Amino acid sequence: MALTYRQTKGSALTIQELDANFAFFTGSHSISGSSTLPVIISGSLEVTGSFGVNSGPVNMTGTSFIITGLPTSEPATSGSLWLSTATGAGSRLLAVKV
I want to staple 92 with a disulfide (CB 3.0 to 4.6 A). Which of 34, 76, 83, 88 is the partner? Predict the structure, then answer.
């Protein structure tokens, strides 16, 4: 979605064009198709239809969410995921560095 400018259009904007311009700045617009660019979502995400991720160590399709290649030692960066062995031999606990 692109912004509509009065100067480019040559006349006043319609109510729908104004609403579309406001939606552009508030982030309340739809995203469709696919993207090779990073997409950053802050807040909530509502998905209608299907949503898939298949990029490097993250794979998500339908109800499956798989993360591979996580470190088994605590990372230094806050917010990072890692697999803790603190639960005992043969089992792992997904942990988040705080």
Answer: 83
